[in-house]
Design goal:
about 130 residues; alpha+beta
Length: about 130
């Protein structure tokens, strides 16, 4: 099955040799997003909740470029440098997603690109 890259200026450009997302059939594999402002490429200012909402907005922008939205996500992987933020992530996800919520893993890691404290990657199913 062919692979089609997904790219949008509404989300940060890739900071390495990868695509923002790749579609294969009706499945879209979204690369990890960190709290970068797509216009400036800088980390957004604000608290953890602001940064997490930016990550989800970036994922949503990539989903929309593929013809879907956040509710197209069936699997979400959350990477945190402090698993103590787990409850905050849950609250923000409850606002951002409709039920049924995506399957999810939340993992504490020692570091993330650009020294951010949250990154998310996803798999979406988009019939378009």
């Amino acid at each position: 099955m062919p692979k089609t890259p997904i790219q949008t200026d509404s989300a940060p450009a890739a900071i390495g040799p990868y695509s923002q997302a790749v579609r294969s059939g009706n499945t879209v594999y979204l690369s990890g997003q960190i709290p970068l402002d797509p216009d400036t490429g800088d980390i957004v200012e604000g608290d953890f909740e602001v940064r997490t909402r930016r990550v989800l907005a970036n994922l949503d922008a990539v989903c929309r470029a593929a013809g879907g939205d956040l509710d197209s996500i069936v699997k979400l992987n959350v990477y945190l440098t402090d698993l103590g933020r787990f409850t905050a992530v849950n609250a923000i996800m409850a606002e951002a997603f409709d039920e049924p919520f995506p399957a999810r893993a939340a993992v504490q890691v020692s570091a993330l690109p650009k020294d951010v404290d949250v990154e998310m990657e996803a798999v979406a199913v988009i019939d378009r």
